[in-house]
Amino acid sequence: MTHLSTGGACPYSQQVADEFRPFDIADPFAFYARAREEAPIFYSAELDYWVVSRYEDVRAIFKDPATFSSENTQSSYKARPAAVQRVLDEGGFQGHSGLSARQPPDHTRIRAFVNKAFTPRRVASLEPFIRDLAERTIGAFEGDGEADLVSQLSYDLPALVIFKLLGVPDEDVPNVKEWALSRVLMNFGDPGEEEQLGHARNLVKYWNYCVALIESRLETPTDDLPGDMARVYNSGDHTVGTHEMASLVYGMLTAGHETTTNLLSNAFRDLLTHREQWERLVADPAKIPGAVEEMLRYAPSVFTWKRKVKKPATVAGVELPVGANVLLLLGSANRDPAQFERGDELDVERSNAREHLAFGLGIHYCLGAPLARLESRVVLEELTRRLPGLRLKAQDFTFAPNTSFRGPDQVLVQWEV
Ligand code: HEM
């Protein structure tokens, strides 16, 4: 644990820090408003992170990767118990980060390589597949009059899309979803040792699955993203090694669905809670792309993100030494009234919604942003068209306990048939 001076931090800083509940992200917005106002940066001893809540500061940190590196984004908050580390070591686990925690020049090299395969054209070409999948998925429960929009729609759909891109068979969806959740809870939650052991066994399976996928593509390159990478490698271009390719698959298999599942689940909940907003989309589907941006702003599925200080820096008047950890509250920055008028209000026609920080910024800007936008637009288009009369059932919303990946476990709805 590093002990740091609070420098010129305001006197409310400690009070705000004491009220911070980092693993409970169900409804922290009133707390965020207070933090932005009274202590825009404070130190959380529970996490050993400095917590930053204002738009302007979060944006500046994203834009300066030489001072604020992403090397800690995939690290757990606490050291792993020896028994957990043993499970990982004995299982040959070597999956750490495909891109998000990599640093230049490695990051620059790998990102340039993936950018060639993950082109806007390749993403756009997925639209008919996504639309057909959304139609079939909604069609399967359309006549029922009630549904859980998470388990019956948003849970599987993004996984089936990224799997299509990565050439993974549909029957592996449940396993990979479970393994990816283990990764999230291990790196962004606070699980006890017994629970960590279960997650560690899942991580071993997950990593070995990604290695096997790359090995099979090196033998027989198929028409998918890993196949493209394998073809380049087999042609003698070893710019990106086989371990790095497996890491990319490992990264995309988490980043590529968990996040979009949660974005859609948040959107269903929040649009139906503010039903006049839902009705605006039903009446005029041309408003849906703007609504997707507003959902990314209002309820970002990546709720907080991590950075590490590499050069002495001052944030919101507080001096941070080299080695300090920084937690960026994206869910707070996106509602900062200094950037977004009436930031706590949902408005699908907000003109500057696209200035949100839900996908980060700068060299690590989300690789999958065009895909996430496409999937969300198509699903909302199909849902508003097919089930315009959707209403929320009375229910309590629950969220997985972790700092960074936010989406309700269930969204129960009903409609007239
Ligand atoms: C709503 C959905 C999504 C959200 C909210 C989201 C959010 C983010 C955020 C906040 C970052 C970190 C940016 C930074 O550090 O500056 C990121 C990076 C990344 N995302 Fe996404 N993401 C989403 C969907 C996807 C999808 C569908 C993919 C599929 C490939 C993906 C792949 C990645 C990768 C590979 C990175 C690391 C990029 C790098 O370090 O160069 N994401 N995303």
TrEMBL record:
GO molecular function per UniProt: cholest-4-en-3-one 26-monooxygenase activity; heme binding; iron ion binding; steroid hydroxylase activity
Alphabetical keyword list: Heme, Iron, Metal-binding, Monooxygenase, Oxidoreductase
Q: Name one GO biological process term.
A: cholesterol catabolic process
Under CDD domains, the record lists:
CYP130-like (cd11078)
PROSITE patterns, alphabetized: CYTOCHROME_P450
Q: Would the keyword ATP-binding turn up in this protein's UniProt record?
A: no
The entry assigns this protein to a family as follows: Belongs to the cytochrome P450 family.
Protein name, per record: Cytochrome P450
Q: Which organism is it from?
A: Deinococcus reticulitermitis
